[in-house]
Write a structure and sequence with these properties.
Blueprint: E1 2-7, H1 14-27, E2 31-36, H2 44-49, E3 53-56, E4 61-64, H3 67-85, H4 91-100, H5 102-116
Parallel strand pairs: 1-2
Antiparallel strand pairs: 3-4
Helix pairs in contact: 1-3, 4-5
């Protein structure tokens, strides 16, 4: 079971984020995916946030005009991942998954470690950190 959580919208409050954290912890998924809210043209969210988004297809750019929104959403994404994958209750599941899918588990763990230790500015969305 995979849980997918989106964080960091311009109107997301600290209380909203705490509720997302609580829900994600209660779900007890096998895998978690967290991403930042990125409205795309043709969607209702894009129309709603049109004046708050700097979007360009070429060169590609999709970010909020307020750098604070970018910083907060990047931090919330990292906090969500850390609170889920670094929780002691996740260790038995990781061992179980490793026993069944060793190659995939190692690959996923390496990707997560790389994310944990990535430096700000290494990818497009982290340049505000």
């Amino acid at each position: 079971v995979t849980g997918f959580f989106i964080v960091g919208g311009p109107e997301e409050t600290e209380e909203d984020f705490r509720m997302t954290l609580d829900l994600s912890r209660r779900t007890k998924c096998d895998f978690y995916i967290a991403d930042r809210l990125r409205p795309y043209p043709g969607t209702a969210l894009f129309d709603l946030y049109r004046d708050k988004i700097d979007f360009s297809a070429r060169p590609y750019k999709n970010e909020y005009t307020d750098p604070a929104v970018e910083v907060i959403s990047a931090k919330r994404e990292r906090v969500l991942y850390n609170s889920l994958y670094l929780d002691a209750s996740f260790i038995p599941l990781t061992i179980k998954l490793f026993m069944r899918y060793p190659r995939e588990t190692i690959s996923n763990m390496l990707g997560f470690v790389k994310f944990l230790f990535s430096r700000p500015g290494k990818n497009e969305h982290d340049k505000y950190l």
